Amino acid sequence: MTDRPVLVLLPGLLCDETVWQAQIAAFGSEWQIQVVDLRGYNSFDAMAEAVLEQAPPRFALAGHSMGGRVALEVFRQAPDRIDRLALLSAGVHPVLEGEAEKRQQLIALAWRDGIEALARQWIPPTLHPDKRHDQALVEQMIAMWCRSTPEIHESQIRAALTRRDARPLLASIRCPTLVLGGIDDSWASAASQQDIAAAIPGSRLALIPECGHMVTMEQPEAVNAHLRDWLAATGDRA
Q1: Which residues on neighbouring strands pair with residue 204, listed in sequence order?
Q2: Domain 6-95+164-232 coded CATH 3.40.50.1820
Q3: pLDDT tens across 73-130, in order?
Q4: R_g of the chain, CA atoms, integer Å
Q5: Would you state the pLDDT for residue 234?
Q6: Mean pLDDT over residues 135-158, rounded?
Q7: By the 8 A CB rule, do 196 and 89 touch?
Q8: How far is residue 43's CA from residue 79's CA, in Å, rounded to a whole number?
Q9: pLDDT cut 90: percent of the chain above it
Q10: Residue 87: CB atoms within 10 Å
Q11: CA distance 166 to 93
């Protein structure tokens, strides 16, 4: 047993606790950290239910990318249990025109050529151009992806393609909230992060320079500085 407050961390597509290593190291002495495995579910609703089953009655919640969308579903299902919320490189829009077809191509690639082939195609564009040549980082991400299977990949893609429009939910969020993204993120743009923050009353916006989509791994120290302020925030609003 521990008296430390609980911080629940939700990884993105085909990701695991690897994406949160720097945050676990930075905050693990003060917070009891739970990284929820979102693999094996085919809807964001089911993922959110799994989070709530594993989490204590009250907890801080942070999600990256797909994990951010799941975090919003957790809030939708149990807003009174969320002490504070952080959305990192997250999106809120519904399925876009042409998105299903593009994602189906990725599903087919994973089944045909394997997860590593998918990872080597998908991962570099998520990073800031300067980080795409960081071989250690790229290989760490590829190894993380390869711990999943084409079946897991397809189930997470199916979940993404049945997601709700999260935009109407944002105005109801009243807990201390951080919206954080990379300025050079081509997947969850800086402009989209600004829009999300503007829609959540009293939220804080943090845009990390020289950073793409994988913020926690690309710029861990900058991310941790903003998370530290968020974790220290008090009151109903950030």
Answers
A1: 178
A2: yes
A3: 999 999 999 999 999 999 999 998 899 999 999 999 999 999 999 999 999 999 999 9
A4: 17
A5: 78
A6: 97
A7: no
A8: 19
A9: 94
A10: 32
A11: 6
Give per-residue pLDDT as tens, 170-209: 999 999 999 999 999 999 999 999 999 999 999 999 999 9
Domain ranges (residues) in the chain: 6-95+164-232, 99-157
Which residue pairs from 25-28 have beta carbons closer than 8 angstroms and sit at least 24 positions apart in sequence?
26/220, 26/224, 26/227, 26/228, 27/224, 27/227, 27/228, 27/231
Tokens of 15: 């990701």
- Asked if 177 and 204 count as a contact pair (C-beta separation under 8 A), the reply is yes
**What 3 state SS string does the chain have?**
CCCCCEEEEECCCCCCHHHHHHHHHHHCCCCEEEECCCCCCCCHHHHHHHHHHHCCCCEEEEEECHHHHHHHHHHHHCHHHEEEEEEECCCCCCCCCCHHHHHHHHHHHHHHHCHHHHHHHHHHHHCCCCCCCCHHHHHHHHHHHCCCCHHHHHHHHHHHHCCCCCHHHHHHCCCCEEEEEECCCCCCCHHHHHHHHHHCCCCEEEEECCCCCCHHHHCHHHHHHHHHHHHHCCCCCC
User: 217: closest CA among 178, 177, 185?
Assistant: 185
The token pair at 73 is 């579903």
Q: Taking the model in full, what pTM does it have? A: 0.95
* Residue 39 identity: R
